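[Discussion] Sanity-checking designs against the backbone

I'm trying to build intuition for which residues belong where. Below is a structure token string of 340 positions. I'd appreciate it if someone posts a full sequence so I can compare it with mine line by line.
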């Protein structure tokens, strides 16, 4: 009898339709990430400086076995003053021909599911979250952004209902443009005219729209983990988002991954898989990612010579005060490797 029940259960599982959970819902993902930098191909007659987003443990990820090596003249871990985003800084004196650094760490990342929302929102003071209600250089919260946000939320008055309306609008109206360089700059006004981009673009729109109607929200920058034994993840940077729900905490969302799945799997908005992805990424993140930074318009520590960084999801370097192109790892030069 027991054997028959087991066979029936197995048959039912095999007969079940495809679910996004079979792709996304590993409870955790672990591996070792190695970031290798070699700036030796650049002119050596000027001082060289390098800043790298630095991984830390939090409730969603455990970072261990951090090791840093290289021939730098100086190296230390700092954070910026506005967001407390950590960074590894290294400096080479002018005249140093070989300039190499390796950052290696192990990480175990949990799948994040926060969907047990309260029936009533607790009282809160927006002043406590002023940083995540403010505009940024590419993310205004007035003018056309405010007008659109008001139209989207309509008569909704709670933080939850406004954020959900904006999430749904973002899933339905933004799209992933595979030709966008890197993760995209997140220029919200341009994106409202041409709503195609990658993860930073899509989440910048979500965040700005949320902030425009009084919902604290922020982007999170990191990198995806691999799923094979060894993978080159040099260009696997990712941006996701979260909003603050009073009396509950920060709620994870990732409409950009909804649109990515739609593109890669050739899905339409009314397809069942799309509906499942939308439901999953409202209040959840899969485990195949590592958080590295938050914040926009960052002033690094020590301060960079150039203007504030729009985002800090990539390494940043200056030689003689001139920035290298962090979106060109082959010339920058760096590689990032994942080992399971």
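Best answer:
Here's mine. Compare freely.
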């Amino acid at each position: 009898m027991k054997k028959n029940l087991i066979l029936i259960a197995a048959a039912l599982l095999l007969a079940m339709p495809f679910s996004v959970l079979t792709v996304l819902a590993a409870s955790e993902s672990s591996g070792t990430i190695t970031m290798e930098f070699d700036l030796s191909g650049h002119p050596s007659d000027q001082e060289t400086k390098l800043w790298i987003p630095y991984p830390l443990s939090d409730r969603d990820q455990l970072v261990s076995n951090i090791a840093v090596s290289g021939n730098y003249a100086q190296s230390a871990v700092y954070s910026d003053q506005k967001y407390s985003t950590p960074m590894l800084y290294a400096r080479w004196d002018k005249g140093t021909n070989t300039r190499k650094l390796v950052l290696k760490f192990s990480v175990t990342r949990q799948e994040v599911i926060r969907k047990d929302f309260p029936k009533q929102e607790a009282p809160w003071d927006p002043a406590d979250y002023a940083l995540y209600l403010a505009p940024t250089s590419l993310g205004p919260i007035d003018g056309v952004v405010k007008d659109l946000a008001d139209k989207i939320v309509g008569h909704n008055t709670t933080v939850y209902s406004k954020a959900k309306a904006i999430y749904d609008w973002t899933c339905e109206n933004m799209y992933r443009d595979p030709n966008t360089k890197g993760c995209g700059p997140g220029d919200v006004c341009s994106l409202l005219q041409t709503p195609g981009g990658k993860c930073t673009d899509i989440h910048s729109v979500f965040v700005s729209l949320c902030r425009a109607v009084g919902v604290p929200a922020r982007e999170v920058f990191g990198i995806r983990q691999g799923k094979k034994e060894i993978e080159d993840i040099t260009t696997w940077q990712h941006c996701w988002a979260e909003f603050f729900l009073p009396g509950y905490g920060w709620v994870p969302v990732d409409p950009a991954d909804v649109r990515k799945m739609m593109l890669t799997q050739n899905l339409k908005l009314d397809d069942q898989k799309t509906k499942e992805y939308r439901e999953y990424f409202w209040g959840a993140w899969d485990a195949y990612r590592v958080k590295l930074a938050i914040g926009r318009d960052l002033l690094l520590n020590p301060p960079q010579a150039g203007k504030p960084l729009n985002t800090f999801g990539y390494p940043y370097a200056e030689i003689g005060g001139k920035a290298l192109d962090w979106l060109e790892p082959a010339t920058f030069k760096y590689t990032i490797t994942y080992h399971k």
